[in-house]
Amino acid sequence: MTFAPIRSERLELRLLTEADRDWLVSVHAQADVGRFIPAGPWTEDIAEEEFAKRISRQGFDTEQGAVSLVATYDGTPVADIVSWFTDREHRVAEIGWAGDPEHAGQGFVTEAAAALLDHLFNDERMHRVAARIDPRNEPSMRVAERLGMQLEGHLRANDWMRGEWCDTLVYGMLASDRNV
Ligand SMILES: CC(C)(COP(=O)(O)OP(=O)(O)OC[C@H]1O[C@@H](n2cnc3c(N)ncnc32)[C@H](O)[C@@H]1OP(=O)(O)O)[C@@H](O)C(=O)NCCC(=O)NCCS
Hints:
The chain is α+β, with helices and mostly antiparallel strands and 180 residues long. Helices cover 27% and strands 37% of the residues.
């Protein structure tokens, strides 16, 4: 089954294509974008590996059980939004986001992630969606909070990244949260 683009007030979210490669790599190569992302910032080698992984994410009903989406505003890519099953059988997923710094501070990432959350709960029938955020990443924490995700836990020194132990905040949203 193909993934039908999702529309929100200002944006369209569609699957990543080969034509997005240069844009996605140029965003993720930036030090500020990659600072709190496990594989970031992308070097040429990492970019090849990461892009191959991303482009294979074509739907929750495919073997990968994941989507890699580009949010566009008036046809211009503004944000990279991903989601993948962490437990396919019980419909638990994780969501991740990165904005193009050229279009930061306009609410595009929040709007795109909100549209994807609607799709995940309404159409993909997810039970739970989580986001994992480094507590130093305050702009990303604000995105999760604007989305209405709940801060559920603070994991201490659980991820070894770029030569240091990093903490992780776990934000979650349940299908049942949306019915209250
Ligand atoms: C995390 C990240 C996506 C946040 O980007 P952002 O531009 O702040 O997010 P949004 O596009 O949702 O914009 C929200 C900001 O725009 C402002 N804004 C302006 N117009 C707005 C509108 N119409 N609607 C909502 N917000 C609006 C908000 O007030 C907010 O600013 P604030 O957080 O300073 O209050 C960005 O910093 C990023 O890409 N970081 C690198 C990658 C990364 O770390 N990803 C997360 C890994 S967990």
